[in-house]
Write a structure and sequence with these properties.
heterodimer; A: mainly alpha; 11 helices; B: alpha/beta; Rossmann fold; six-stranded mixed sheet; globular
Amino acid sequence: MIDLEIILTAVFIAWACALVGSFLVTREMAMVGDAIAHAVLPGIVLAYLISGGRDSLWMLTGACLAGVFVTLCIEWVQKKARVQSDAAIGISYTFLFAIGVILVSKYGQTVDLDQDCVLYGEIAYVPLDRWMLGGLDMGPRQTWIGLGLFTGLSVLIFRGFRALTLTSFDPSYAATLGISVAVWHYALMGAVSLTTVVSFESVGAILVVALVVIPPATAYLFAKTIKNMILLALGFSTTMVVSGYYVSAWLDVSISGSMATTGLVQFLLVMGLKPLLIQSEKIPSHGLKSKG
Amino acid sequence: MKEIALEAHNLTVSYHRKPVLWNIDFKIPAGEIIGIMGPNGAGKSTLLKSIMGLVPASSGYVRIFNQNLKTQRKKIAYVPQRQSVDWDFPARVIDVVKMGRYTHTGLFRRFKPMDYEKAKSALEKVGMLAFAERQIAQLSGGQQQRVFLARALAQEAELYILDEPFAGVDAATEEALIKIIRDLKSQGKTMVVVHHDLQTCREYFSHLVFINARLVASGPTQEVFTEKNLASTYGGKLTLLSKMAELVAEKEFPVREKGSSEFKKSS
């Protein structure tokens, strides 16, 4: 039962990450996911200090604002200083993360937050935090939050599918059709921030980045269309976290670490199998590129 | 006087406070094929982007069929340079062409059978129907250009703005593209094309706009294609140009831009 609760939570969060990650990877913005995952820290701490408690609505708002703020910083640094996008990402998020760390160390005694919990999160503790409804045990709170997040993002991606796809592929053309590229960009960035902060408590920032990047990147190797890529990414993220969980149980090691590792192993397997499939001409021959 | 499809009035555009286009002022009649000519860095692409509202004007304005761009979006279709997008994006040819129908369906309404038909017929016009299910990463440069044109055709606009459609495509594709452009003209559409090749421009365009940061000349080809206008457009490069012209007269040496086509998106 505990196995199932942890696995289900991980699967829901992995699905949410795969949804937003698919668009980040096709926009060549995978590392923006990493930046957001770190930059939400000061948002969380400030929201905590202002509201004076671990009220999740405040925390979510603070984190989302910080997440969108870091994407603004990245664009600003890139435009004003005219540096490469990866340098702009590095400058912006380390700055915000540093402020977060300073805030935690300054107010650490009064704040029930520590860097370990934020960075590494511990999915093994998920079953401890129950959602009680009128005395009835509904299961772990995080599982429901994960499911809610995935549902919400599904609606956003489903409704915004055309806009997100078009603004990812050809933003200038999208603008000539009268579509607001900025609105969809920040909607996606807001969704990434939300995903990151919701996933924090259960899986930690590092696994969030792995979940956002690895399954979509694996799917990208095969996918013919973006729809295809999202569905494949959902599949790959499922196999990644389920196999990761059992590997960790088998070796008695960190669950998050195992999941990130099985994700990589899966990516390498798919990459290795690709040439065989290309020969049968069933899949496209494009590959992953790095940017900058 | 014919209807004016496109008018730029005292248009000035700046990047990082440096003006790229100064006081551009011209009128383009409807139902013609118009070439926009100028050397590299003359601001041709910037002019198109400004017309499409992609870069803001510092002063002046653009009118499309005598109105603001915002009210005329359905009448104008833009074909960007094909190097401006990532062709490794996971999409099929038909997916890209269907994007052209969004002006009619919007972002949320379902596609009707008619929308699919129009996307397919646009592909047929550019000779790419057989490639509809093909992944766009597998296309050649010329095929990419045809797909971009098909996407604009699916918009069923009145005014088409093409940014260097002939750059880096083979001769057969160039011929096919100009044929489609002429077909559209014969249906009463206005075609505005950024072009490089001085050899073919008299043959392709009934009207020309010469720019080099400023407007040099605009008008019917036989009136404005003069040595004086060429000299002030291409400036110091004209000596090279006249040499080339001699060469052409002697050997029919093709003057076509090379190299610029193979640039990949760099940021």
